[in-house]
Amino acid sequence: MPTKTYYLDNARTDEVTATWSLFFRNFRLDYQGRELGQLTPAELKAGHEFALPDGRRLLVRLQQKFGAQGLDFQLDGRPLGDTVNDPLTQINGGFAATMVIAGLNEALSAVAMLGPVEFLLAFGFGWGTLAEGALYAGLGWLGKYRQLAWAFWVALALLVLDGVLLLGSGQGTGGVVVRLFLGMAIYRAAVAARRVRISSVLAASE
Question: Same domain, yes or no, for 110 and 178?
């Protein structure tokens, strides 16, 4: 039975714990070890707001829109860490997407050149894609650890351009669905990184 704990404070002492069974049946939410309530899958998808003992409001819902699927917990309108709408979670998702692209480029390029593997060479894998993989890795690193939105935007632009060139070459769809999911993760990371940077600047100016 899956169990996940979320923290309502930076000290990670104020916690809520969610447990559920397959397909989010028997969803139960506990606050500080005491049950807050239970939700059916339909109620969870619609979203439900719980009142905490101190008057704070905790919104819980299952978000299932394209490119952003998972549990959404919001405390008085603020997303909790490790939830689908948390900016840092979105940045980590974009970083993971760029690393997947980088890893595939590096691995397939190496195989194509060392083999040599003709069909990979025909798809253009070689020194160029090896360098492209390193570029994706660098952009992902800058996006996550420097929280630079432009790094994610450049990675997204490269992904789109690469897909367009591949389609134009007549060599197949190039995994359009996979590219869409990776692109959505990078897009959300770019937006989140910008939001985090703005929040940091505003906090520093206060």
Answer: yes
Q: In the chain, at which residue ranges do the beta strands (DSSP E only) sit? A: 3-7, 15-19, 27-31, 34-39, 48-51, 57-65, 68-75, 78-79
Whole domain around residue 74: which residue ranges? Answer: 3-79
Task: Flag whether pLDDT at 126 surpasses 60.
Answer: yes
Last residue of one domain, picked from the residues 79, 113, 138: 79
| C-beta separation of 67 from 186 below 8 A | no
Same domain? 61 vs 100: no
**123 and 191 fall within a common domain:** yes
Backbone angles phi, psi at 147, to 5 degrees: 50, 50
Q: What is the pTM of this model?
A: 0.86
Task: For 30-40, write each residue's pLDDT tens digit.
Answer: 999 899 999 99
Total domains in the fold of the chain:
2
Edge-first strand order for the sheet with 34-39 is: 3-7, 15-19, 27-31, 34-39
pLDDT of residue 148: 96
Instruction: List the strands of the sheet with 78-79, edge to edge.
Output: 48-51, 57-65, 68-75, 78-79
Planar angle of CA 147, 151, 157, nearest 5 degrees = 145
Domain end position, chosen among 22, 48, 79: 79
For 135-159, the pLDDT digits (tens) are 999 999 999 999 999 999 999 999 9
Distance CA 13, CA 79 (A): 17
